[in-house]
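Lab notebook page, bench 4
Experiment: in silico fold of construct C2
Operator: M.H.
Input chain length: 217 residues
Purpose: comparison with the prior construct
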Amino acid sequence: MTKQHVTTVNSSKYMIASHIMTKQHVITVNTSKYMIASQTMKNQHVTTVNTSKYMTASHTMTKQHVTTVNTSKYMIATHTMTKKHVTTVNTSKYIIASYSIAYHDKTACHHSKYTQIHDSITYHDKTACHHSKYIQIHDSMAYHDKTACHHSSYIQIHDSIAYHDKTACHHSKYLIASHTMKNQHVTTVNSSKYMIASHDSKFILVYTRQTCMYLQI
């Protein structure tokens, strides 16, 4: 993403920051209903994150930048988060674990309605994953339950995994395609690191290498 690609982001209902966004490109982020922080965003760029209904922390965020995360309805932990930063994760309706952080509350994960695991963490409760209504797997993990994926109402595959059920993918109401997918679904997103499903989707999944989340309209 470069310069003008997101100049009108403040007028958009949803905003995605490019991983190379810098300086003033996201100064209006606090006016957006949903905000995603770029992995390269620094210091004050997300100071207003606590006012956003949904928050995602960049993997470079440190110290006090996400101290208000516990007040967010949805919480995403960065892969560099440590110690007490995610102590309140068990109270979140949706749980996303960073790939370098182990679940400190596995029970909460097991019973979470939405389950998502990063690429270096294996499912500690495969049954919960199998029965999860929403399933998303990162690029270094293989589907341990392809049937569940086939019948999932929401399907998203990352770039190093091929669609094992292209029919299900094509007919999925919500579709996020990897940036390496070659079908017509992603012809207009080849220049973006982030891909969003159709605007009439009830749920939108936002993905970066470090974090991802469901945004409920």
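Observations: Confidence is low (pLDDT under 50) at residues 1-217. The beta strands are 74-76, 94-97, 114-117, 134-137, 154-157, 174-176, 203-207, 212-216.
Next step: discuss at group meeting.
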